[in-house]
Amino acid sequence: MADRFVLVGPASRELGETVAARLRIPTLPYDFRVFPDGETRVRVEEKISRSTVFVLQSTYPPVDQHLMQLLLISHHLSQEGAKVHAVIPYLAYARQDKQFLPGEIVSLGVVSHLLRSVGVKRITTVDIHSAEGLALFSMPIYSASAVPALVDHVKKNMRLKDVAVIAPDFGSSKRGEAFASVYGAKYLQISKTRDSATGAVKMKASKLDVKGLDVIIFDDIISTGGTVTAAAGLLHEAGAAKIVAVCTHPLLVGDAEAKLRQAGISDVIGTNTVPSRVSKVDVSEVIASHVRTLTE
Ligand code: R5P
Fold first, then answer.
1. What residues are labeled active site?
2. Mutate to test the pocket of ligand 1, among 227, 248, 278 (most ligand atoms within 8 A of CB)
3. pLDDT digits (tens, 9 = 90+) for 119-158
4. Is 223 a pocket residue for ligand 1 (Cβ < 6 Å)?
5. How far apart are CA 183 and CA 251, in angstroms?
6. In angstroms, what CA-CA distances link 108 with 7, 96, 99, 104, 114?
7. pTM, whole model, 2 decimals?
8. What are phi and psi of 252, to 5 degrees?
9. 95 lines ligand 1 (CB under 6 A)
10. Are strands 279-281 and 191-194 parallel, antiparallel or unpaired?
11. Residues 99, 223, 132, 109: what is their CA dihedral angle, to the nearest 10 degrees?
């Protein structure tokens, strides 16, 4: 019997199959059903004791359902004696990595606790929202970077010239700088404030030298599109030529994509950590190349 398996979670069928194929690790079959009320039932018949199982499940919306599926599967496998390595391409709740207001729950800490309690021994994710979030986990966790793959795609597929890269808030500046440096473009910072009660976003920049430039707005997540839309407003005022939006996790909730188009964003791309119309960059090799470095 193989001593390593990939269990391709229901939220990440395509990506999981590709990762398993790249790693040449067999996938573990299971029976899966979502009842009309939203509850999930999973059945794994294979005996997997003493094996390592990579459970690959992204936790994009419906967030809690996908997270619960990951917990159910991981619990079962670890109870059966497998060593569970959770591969979570988009790790939900990573933005709530500290208490921003008194009384707020540090949700990522709870997710960490839940994963540990169902027996997860190791985690691999892609572009976690913040490095601080990693400290909330008591098991080894690694956040692989999708930046080189995204830059490669943009260079090959978007016809941009005289490029500047901006990150729309201070939190994403390190990733933005990395993107600009891999791209070989100049980097500019915009600062964002979000009203924690209403969620409304305000942007400002002391000096935005983008007249006539093509600008890439790079963020880890595009959710409602509010952040990118507000950044695009400033860039238009400052005379940018073309504006494109690039992110790792294109959650694109509700009418986010339409909002981005209306804001004059000419192209939007993301990775397949979250399946969507704009998920053009495949992160299977980003994940597989990290897993290959692991000795256990
Ligand atoms: C937050 O700090 C993240 O890095 C993103 O900027 C944010 O999640 C984007 O959300 P939205 O698209 O709803 O503005």
1. 192
2. 227
3. 999 999 999 999 999 999 999 999 999 999 999 999 999 9
4. yes
5. 24
6. 23, 6, 11, 12, 10
7. 0.95
8. 40, 60
9. yes
10. unpaired
11. 60
